[in-house]
Amino acid sequence: MKILSDICIDYLSLRKNIDENGVINLTNYFSKSILSLLQNEIVEIFTKNKKRRDIYMRETDNTPRKMYTVSQKAIYESSDLIPAFYSSKDLNLLLNKITGKDISPVPVESGERFVINGLENAKDTHGWHWDDYTYALVFIAKAPSVEFGGYLEAIPNTLNEKNESNAFTAINNNKIDRHFYSEKNIYFMKSDTTLHRVTPINNENLRVSLAMAWATDKDLRLDLDHMTIKNLYGI
């Protein structure tokens, strides 16, 4: 399975970009065939396994989660492709070279290796949050046109303090960057210090994404409770 394209990669430029902006587009560095395979697999799994969530997360100032989710467990039970992609040595090496760090797949027991998120109904949103682990790789399987919402907003280099109500402080005190990704785009995020959300969709459209978490050595030494993941994905 060929994962990466043959395009030359300027790792130092990508590293500088993600350090400054928190998010980088990696679409061109993946083969078109793997992106098409992932799209079909993700949409099929989402359609068959999605669970509705309408909750507010106390950890981030009660920001909303009005969305559908598919858990890591359901993906493992439904797919060989997604686990193989996530565990690929080529993918791991790419992300290590971009970050200049030794990053690795997160523990399977965390439930955060890979999950699927979906917005379908008007006002559905994946509200403001930071992730537990340092990095996230996100593949967009379905996305509405920009005028219908469902795009990424991000505030890089913000402080994530669990159980502290500081999400809205970060929102009010910083510039919000907007990132517009199309279907079969894939982006990489410094997700533990980039406050981010997917904006509400304003009509009945479909936005479906696969989110994959990646850990630093420091992450693996932390005692993470994964409570937000348990609430959102029912694990």
TrEMBL record:
It comes from the Bacteria. InterPro entries: BesD/HalB-like. Pfam families: HalD (PF23169). This is Fe2OG dioxygenase domain-containing protein. It comes from Silvanigrella aquatica.
